[in-house]
Amino acid sequence: MLPAVDLACPYCGEWITVFVDLDAEGNGARYVEDCQVCCRPIQISVSLDEDGAPQVEARADHEA
Fold first, then answer.
1. Which terminus of the chain has a lower count of CB atoms within 10 Å, N or C?
2. What's the predicted TM-score (pTM) here?
3. pLDDT, tens digit (0-9, with 9 covering 90-100), for 10-60
4. d(CA 56, CA 58)
5. Does the pLDDT of residue 63 top 80, yes or no?
């Protein structure tokens, strides 16, 4: 099962759920996922903290 992370869309501010595939992405991965509410592209950055928990950062496409 993929870990789910809730984050606020940098465009519309709505909370969305992103599923993170740590095996496929690895540490320091970046990819684009569309907001489930406003459909705008969000730059997603994934890293792992010291305990191995995913840390996910969302940025507007023009902020990357």
1. N
2. 0.77
3. 999 999 998 887 665 556 688 889 999 999 999 988 888 888 777 889 999
4. 7
5. no
Whole-angstrom distance, CA of residue 44 vs CA of residue 28:
10
User: Domain range for residue 46?
Assistant: 4-63
Tell me how crowded residue 48 is: count the other CB atoms within 10 A of its CB. 15
* Number of compact structural domains in the chain: 1
DSSP 2-14: PPEEEEE-TTT--
Residues 6+ apart with CB under 8 A from 4: 17, 18, 19, 20
**DSSP E strands, the chain:** 4-8, 15-19, 29-34, 41-48, 54-60
